[in-house]
Model the fold of this input.
Amino acid sequence: MPLPGRVIAFVNFKGGVGKTANVVNIGACLAKYHGKKVLIVDLDAQCNSSLWLMKPEELEKHNQDLHRCSYQIFRDKIVGSSVFDFVKAVVRGVPRREYTLIANLDLLPSAVEMAMIEDQIHQIKSVSAFTILYQALKPYFGAYDYVFLDCPPNLYTVSKNALFAAQYCVVPYIPDYLSLSGFLVLADMIDEFYNRLSGQMTVRRRPQIAAFIINHFVRQRNVFETGVNEFEIMINRLKENGKIHPRAQCLHPYIRFNVHVAESTNEHLPVILHKEDSMGAMDYADLTQNFIRHFEVTL
Ligand SMILES: Nc1ncnc2c1ncn2[C@@H]1O[C@H](COP(=O)(O)OP(=O)(O)O)[C@@H](O)[C@H]1O
Ligand SMILES: [Mg+2]
Done:
């Protein structure tokens, strides 16, 4: 039985590859240009998607009550409480201004306290340590067309919770030489994790890596062209081995490095609201069309 919404984990144990940039900017394009209802779940102690879509003082105020963030979902399981309340925790219609900018984009913020979860979670020994997020959020998935899980830059327990909760994984990738071997390790680790937990997923299709998003692409540079070509060869090999989804692909266009994407973080706005005619905004708008086709038609 498929989940009602498409729950997608954006995952890569490398930092700075565009997990958060993709979650925020594809999420914003889906909501603003295509009327999709989108929930972003920030799972990173660095709170980057929260701080991209909320001003620091807004986030600080929201998180004065830690029950209102993704941290509390894990905390509840560790201490045996049940105080997380999704309806109170979710911030509706981000980024918020005096008037509505994007009505359909919701955020479940993170908190720096997430950094402590990894040490504490080992008190929970069984595989149930990986199902915490899914159990807490599954009643709410149905209200959304897309739920994006913004993972921390590692594959520890919180990320594994995202892998378990997701229907699909998206791997953001910067196509330079050193990333390729890292990606192979990542694909193996995700495959192994799903093999290990397949018994827990009997009612759901086994999630798999279903798409790649190339970021920081510079067309005139051979290193990136070569990097993408080698990456595509690797993807085909992994498909043959059944380690990723048989119709997984690198979505087009590749996202080019664009200063307006970086700048938009300071403004706490997705790039389409910060500078709609920028290369970054156009890349993300085009990519989102292909993203919808991929997830709603191809897969
Ligand atoms: N296409 C791009 N052009 C310019 N800057 C980008 C682009 N994509 C991401 N960035 C910037 O690079 C930094 C790292 O990206 P981020 O999405 O936070 O990576 P991750 O979540 O994988 O750690 C962020 O500060 C972001 O603003
Ligand atoms: Mg991030």
User: Anything to note?
Assistant: The first helix runs from residue 19 to 34. The CA atoms of residues 131 and 161 lie 6 Å apart.
